[in-house]
């Protein structure tokens, strides 16, 4: 009875599997496009293989015992136990196997962490929910955010090929060059993750961490934010376009022309990003920068907030006072929005003007922050 | 069955069904809820908190009253006594681990994160000009503060606590010699020293806030300073309350020269608080 | 040592205290309390499981269908918290309550009244966690690991969650003090430590882990709370703090925590396998030492959850080596179990099936753990579904299967009733198959780069996610069968014989009647 049902189920499962199998299925890491990636790939395979062998040996023995040493075939229980020799053997052998694994692992790790002498350095800052890329020597700076239309997410439109893995501004790097990524964050933790390039590094507010890669061939490599960062954590892709050296130079020149920043290092200052098309931003209380929906932040500010924030009345942090605002913005945009809308100590909800919409207040906050950076 | 001999010296006492645990849970629930309400400006938090404290007091008096009655009527044999000793030791160990979390944070900020913020890419790209010297508030805090010196009140407080450790031991000797006078006097002195310690600590806090601009918000130094000394002060308060209870029990003639675990438990706790203070004095105030 | 009971005491076996709900509210009996723990944990398992079903339903297809991202994140958070703190840990405390006094020949736990309090702290904590779903802003969407600064941004639900964790910590600390004291001080004459059933050993060691790390967790969430409301800067770099500091403190708790979940499960398995192999455990003392080594090592490996935060490479190397070392004592345990079966005389009733399922799948999960321990590989796999697959193998197929096995194993002893063996086998096979269907494919998702904690994913991940969801729903429904089996056994189960399992040899089987009397050994038994 049991056996028959188990059998039926197995057939069910397998057919279910076969039915799904025409989709593209991957059973291992993505194809790697860096030398380090190949090493990691091989290292992973080797370890899985070793584990598989141990698994087969151990459970081979167990299955054999289950088969032969069962009561139903009349096997009588032996009564042996405690045997120091055996115990020592099965302590020492795994230890030696582990030593064998540790050696290549250490070598790979040391290579992975060696970020010295890069050809190109890009500072990457994670925000809720977009990435800012700053090419430190080239003075290029831009934001990169999800480009997938909201309608695809809500199943209204057909999903495109690169659903959720497409951005408005891709980060462009030259092939064969060692690219060092300096990571930090503006609000909460994020992680910059591109599987095919074998990089993942946490972006931590207030700290700069680094990682690197050297892409072997041109192409577009897609990844995602890999550290829970709030509601749009799933909508924060990373897209790296690897191009030839010449294409790269052209791209740089074009960007510099567009941004008019060939000379001055203004990369960090023109922060206030344009409104992102954050996919779920329409939900109430959404914290995506809200300038568009909120009308003119400066106007709202002048009417409702300036009274205190212009003068420092009631202990309000003054507009333009960088020192007063830095620790506050460190709390994260969400918090500031929340405090501006809901009130905070002496700060009245919506500055006391409850006729304002949330979006308007947010716009005013954006204005305040932009003026105080 | 043998358990009918209630006073048999070698029987393990198993309490009858009791409603105190559930009362305790209600108290804890109300208190936690009221704290959440208070922190989030929900109306009525105060009422819930008052109710929580009322239930808590009822619970403490009820439960400890029961235990004391059971103990005084000789229901606890040697083995029960050993159980209490194990329990109190491991409870104190858990408290040690609680403090360890905060000492860990102090160590981490002081030895790792603060210097780290002032070096390398962190300093260059994010926090120019931050020196990273301890005592530090942190690179994003403009306001300055004066750290608490070790050789004023803190040193006096160290002496006070050390002395109180001695007085409680002296009281213990008294108890063991059946010298009740020495017992109560020792306890009284210990309590007085505990209260003196707390008063000076409060004075120090006021001083910190008013004169030194040293607040909870003063970054790494302020946070670790107040959380460590604050939790310590809280434990001193608990210890003092426990001492007061023991003091009144001693006045009522509880405890004998041979059997007085409650007394010992409180003195262990007091010594533990003492040791934590020594660590604080060295690591927070002095070095 | 004998036992003297408070006023409610009567001669004979029966219970004469308060009845009805008051009996359970006021009880000081380790069996009543054990049962309450087990029922509570099952209720929480259903709740946490229902949340998992929301997660899996949303992930059935790409796109947003069932819930919005905020609710999804809250489901992930509370699923993790409730399963870990509400379902698995209390389940094993329930086992401890029922079994430790019976296995060491004690009349009850050392502190029966405090024991009751340990239990009754759990419902308020659960209530706070449930309440957190309904306050303005909804449940906190931060993951069970509660990393700041995201936690700092949350609303009131975060505070409710933090206080729930505080209460759970209090409960665990009192529970462990009770267990340690019981094991060290309440053993019957002749029951030396090295004669105790292995289950008692595993709990003794677990209790030490709990006492050492629950206060640390309490400290960590207290710092979160003050950072949220009292202007401290523990985790804020502007004030010289560091978000990573929280991760260090959390995982100093968190890694031992996963062994807090696993070690009692090892204990249960170590009772079941010898009973059905009809052969003593191969290496009793080496099992004890291996368990202790795992516990000690577990304090030294925490940062393997943090390989991508940018620690110095020396630290990464240290944590990698230390983590890999844990495979050695765990291997000793696995080999011992297999050696116990070797040349036994095995039968395969439901408890044994679950034990074998445990052994097989836990080891698999252990191997994926080892893969994750290798830092350069983990950098690829961290925060992907590979990790999700790993920990469900060790926690669901590991700890949960072990708990199921234990319940089938001891149910006759506890209730005097037998469960339905056929249905039990069904429960096992359905669970086994659907479990693998749900979680095996997640390895592939993780390898291919699907991050965890996302409500929506790109098209390359669609097929395996669909399979996983089907498996998860099958697994969930199979658990309703379990509930049915237990209720059926309680209501109309056959009367259990004194010793339904031929090879069971610990003293709760050999020295106590079945069902076990309300008061265990009132007079201490004499052990050889
Ligand atoms: C019951 C719980 C449990 C158990 C027992 C384990 C056991 C182990 N875990 Fe796991 N783990 C978790 C629960 C558990 N884990 C959870 C919940 C998380 C995620 C938390 C979160 O982020 O939310 C996690 C995450 C996690 C990570 C972090 C992944 C990441 O986020 O990037 C790592 C990395 O090292 C890891 C490693 C290990 C190792 C090495 C073991 C070892 O103990 C395994 C040892 C066992 C074996 C190896 C098999 C048997 C041995 C042999 C047969 C001997 C011979 C073998 C060899 C020589 C190889 N675990
Ligand atoms: C021991 C702990 C434990 C247990 C038992 C489980 C059990 C399950 N878990 Fe999970 N899980 C965790 C601990 C656990 N989990 C943790 C710690 C996390 C990390 C959280 C985080 O990232 O912060 C996690 C995260 C996690 C994720 C990743 C979420 C994400 O990253 O966003 C997923 C996704 O598939 C998942 C699925 C499941 C499923 C399908 C089950 C099933 O086994 C559950 C089966 C049980 C039931 C379904 C209940 C019984 C049945 C009913 C109530 C009847 C109704 C049922 C139906 C209608 C089918 N769990
Ligand atoms: Cu950014 Cu997740
Ligand atoms: Cu771990």
Folded structure, characterized:
The complex is a heterotrimer of chains A (373), B (287) and C (528). Chain A has 373 residues and is an alpha+beta fold. Helix content of chain A is 39%, strand content 16%. Chain A is built from 9 helices and 10 strands. In chain A, β6 (190-194) and β7 form a beta hairpin. Chain B folds into 2 domains: 14-75, Helix Hairpins; 76-286, Cytochrome c oxidase, subunit III, four-helix bundle (Four Helix Bundle (Hemerythrin (Met), subunit A), Up-down Bundle), CATH 1.20.120. Chain C is an all-alpha fold. Chain C has a single domain, classed as Cytochrome c oxidase-like, subunit I domain (Cytochrome C Oxidase, Chain A, Up-down Bundle). At the A-C interface, α1, α2, α3, β7 and β9 of A face α3, α6, α9, α10 and α11 of C. β1 (11-14) of chain B pairs parallel with β1 (2-5) of chain C, so a sheet runs across the interface. Copper (II) ion is lined by residues 255, 258, 304-305 of chain C.
CATH topology of chain C: Cytochrome C Oxidase, Chain A
Termini Cα gap of chain B: 63 Å
- Provide the residue-averaged pLDDT of chain C: 93
Low-confidence stretches of chain C: 8-14
What's the CATH architecture name of the largest domain in chain B? Up-down Bundle
Intertermini distance of chain C: 17 Å
**Backbone CA Rg of chain B:** 23 Å
Question: How many domains would you count in the coordinates of chain B?
Answer: 2
- H-E string of chain B: EHHHHHHHH
The tally of helices of chain C reads: 18
């Amino acid at each position: 009875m049991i056996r028959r049902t188990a059998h039926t189920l197995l057939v069910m499962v397998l057919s279910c599997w076969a039915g799904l199998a025409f989709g593209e299925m991957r059973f291992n890491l993505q194809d790697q496009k860096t030398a380090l990636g190949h090493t990691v790939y091989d290292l992973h395979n080797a370890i899985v293989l070793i584990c598989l062998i141990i698994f087969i040996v151990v459970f081979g023995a167990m299955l054999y015992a289950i088969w032969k040493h069962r009561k139903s075939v009349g096997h009588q229980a032996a009564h042996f136990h405690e045997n120091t020799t055996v115990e020592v053997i099965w302590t020492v052998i795994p230890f030696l196997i582990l030593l064998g694994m540790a050696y290549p692992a250490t070598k790979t790790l040391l290579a992975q962490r060696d970020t010295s002498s890069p050809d190109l350095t890009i500072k990457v800052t994670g925000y809720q929910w977009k990435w800012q890329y700053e090419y430190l020597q080239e003075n290029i700076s831009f934001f990169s955010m999800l480009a997938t239309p909201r309608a695809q997410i809500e199943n209204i439109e057909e999903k495109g090929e690169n659903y959720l893995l497409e951005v408005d501004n891709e980060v462009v790097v030259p092939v064969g060059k060692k690219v060092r990524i300096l990571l930090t964050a503006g609000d909460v933790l994020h992680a910059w993750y591109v599987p095919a390039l074998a990089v993942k590094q946490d972006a931590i507010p207030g700290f700069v961490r680094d990682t690197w890669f050297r892409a072997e061939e041109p192409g577009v490599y897609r990844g995602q934010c890999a550290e829970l960062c709030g509601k749009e954590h799933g909508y924060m892709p990373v897209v790296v376009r690897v191009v030839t050296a010449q294409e790269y130079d052209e791209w740089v020149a074009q960007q510099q022309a567009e941004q008019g920043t060939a000379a001055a290092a203004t990369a960090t200052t023109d922060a206030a990003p344009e409104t992102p098309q954050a996919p779920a931003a329409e939900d109430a209380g959404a914290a995506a920068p809200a300038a568009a929906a909120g009308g003119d932040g400066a106007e709202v500010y002048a009417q409702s907030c300036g009274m205190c924030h212009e003068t420092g009345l009631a202990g309000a942090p003054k507009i333009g006072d960088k020192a007063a605002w830095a620790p506050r913005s460190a709390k994260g945009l969400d918090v500031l929005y929340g405090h501006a809308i809901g009130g905070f100590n002496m700060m009245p909800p919506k500055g006391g003007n409850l006729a304002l919409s949330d979006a308007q207040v947010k716009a005013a906050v954006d204005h305040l922050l932009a003026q105080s950076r | 069955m043998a358990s009918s001999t209630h006073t048999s010296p070698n029987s393990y006492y198993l309490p009858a069904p009791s409603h105190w645990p559930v009362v305790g849970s209600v108290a804890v629930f109300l208190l936690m809820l009221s704290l959440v309400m208070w922190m989030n400006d929900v109306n009525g938090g105060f009422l819930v908190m008052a109710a929580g404290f009322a239930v808590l007091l009822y619970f403490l008096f009820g439960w400890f009253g029961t235990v004391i009655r059971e103990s005084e009527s000789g229901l606890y044999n040697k083995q029960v006594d050993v159980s209490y000793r194990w329990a109190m030791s491991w409870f104190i160990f858990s408290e040690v681990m609680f403090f360890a979390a905060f000492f860990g944070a102090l160590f981490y900020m002081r030895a790792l994160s603060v210097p780290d913020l002032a070096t390398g890419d962190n300093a260059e790209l994010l926090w120019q000009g931050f020196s990273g010297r301890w005592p530090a508030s942190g690179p994003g805090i403009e306001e300055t503060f004066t750290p608490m010196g070790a050789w004023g009140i803190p040193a006096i407080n160290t002496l006070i606590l050390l002395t109180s450790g001695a007085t409680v031991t002296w009281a213990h000797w008294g108890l063991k010699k059946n010298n009740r006078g020495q017992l109560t006097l020792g306890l009284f002195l210990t309590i007085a020293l505990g209260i003196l310690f707390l008063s000076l600590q409060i004075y120090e806090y006021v001083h910190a806030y008013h004169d030194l601009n040293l607040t909870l918000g003063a970054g790494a130094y302020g946070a670790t300073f107040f959380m460590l000394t604050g939790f310590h002060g809280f434990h001193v308060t608990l210890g003092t309350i426990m001492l007061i209870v023991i003091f009144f029990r001693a006045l009522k003639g509880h405890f004998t020269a041979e059997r007085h675990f409650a007394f010992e438990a409180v003195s262990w706790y007091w010594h533990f608080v003492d040791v934590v203070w020594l660590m604080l004095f060295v690591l927070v105030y002095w070095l | 040592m004998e036992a003297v009971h408070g006023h409610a005491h009567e001669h004979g076996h029966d219970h004469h205290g308060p009845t009805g709900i008051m009996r359970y509210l006021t009880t000081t009996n380790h069996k009543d309390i054990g049962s309450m723990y087990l029922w509570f944990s099952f209720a929480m398992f259903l709740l946490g499981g229902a949340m998992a079903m929301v997660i899996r339903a949303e992930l059935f297809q790409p796109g947003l269908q069932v819930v919005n991202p905020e609710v999804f994140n809250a489901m992930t958070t509370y699923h993790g918290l409730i399963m870990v703190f509400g379902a698995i840990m209390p389940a094993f405390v329930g086992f401890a309550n029922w079994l430790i006094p019976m296995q060491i020949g004690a009349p009850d736990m050392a502190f029966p009244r405090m024991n009751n309090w340990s239990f009754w702290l759990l419902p308020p904590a659960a209530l706070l966690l449930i309440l957190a779903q309904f306050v303005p802003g909804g449940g906190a969407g931060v993951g069970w690991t509660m990393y700041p600064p995201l936690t700092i941004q949350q609303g009131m639900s975060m505070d409710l969650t933090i206080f729930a964790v505080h209460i759970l910590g209090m409960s665990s600390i009192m529970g462990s003090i009770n267990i340690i004291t019981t094991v060290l001080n309440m053993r019957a004459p002749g029951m030396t430590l090295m004669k105790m059933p292995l289950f008692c050993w595993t709990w003794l060691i677990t209790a030490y882990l709990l006492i050492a790390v629950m206060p640390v967790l309490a400290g960590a969430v207290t710092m979160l709370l003050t950072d949220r409301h009292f202007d401290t800067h523990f985790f804020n770099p502007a004030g010289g703090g560091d978000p990573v500091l929280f991760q260090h403190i959390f995982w100093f708790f968190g890694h031992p925590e996963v062994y807090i979940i696993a070690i009692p499960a090892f204990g249960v398995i170590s009772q079941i396998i010898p009973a059905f192999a009809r052969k003593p455990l191969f290496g009793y003392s080496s099992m004890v030492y291996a368990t202790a080594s795992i516990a000690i090592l577990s304090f030294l490996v925490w940062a393997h959850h943090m390989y991508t935060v940018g620690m110095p490479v020396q630290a990464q190397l240290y944590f990698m080596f230390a983590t890999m070392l844990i495979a050695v004592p765990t291997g000793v345990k696995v080999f011992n179990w297999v050696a116990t079966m070797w040349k036994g005389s095995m039968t395969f009733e439901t408890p044994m099936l679950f034990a074998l399922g445990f052994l097989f799948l836990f080891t698999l999960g252990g191997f994926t753990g080892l893969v994750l321990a290798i830092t350069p590989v983990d950098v690829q796999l961290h925060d992907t579904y590979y990790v999700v697959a790993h920990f469900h193998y060790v926690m669901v197929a590991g700890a949960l299967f072990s708990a199921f096995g234990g319940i089938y194993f001891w149910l006759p002893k506890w209730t005097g009733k037998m469960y339905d063996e056929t249905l039990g086998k069904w429960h096992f096979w359905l669970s086994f198959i659907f479990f693998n269907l749900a979680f095996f494919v997640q390895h592939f998702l993780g390898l291919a780069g699907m991050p965890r904690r996302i409500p929506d994913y790109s098209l390359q991940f669609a097929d395996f996610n669909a399979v996983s969801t089907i498996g998860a729903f099958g697994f969930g429904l199979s658990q309703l069968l379990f509930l049915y089996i237990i209720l059926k056994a309680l209501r109309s189960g056959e009367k259990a014989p004194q010793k339904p399992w031929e090879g069971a040899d610990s003293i709760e089987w050999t020295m106590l009647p079945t069902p076990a009397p309300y008061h265990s050994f009132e007079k201490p038994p004499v052990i050889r």
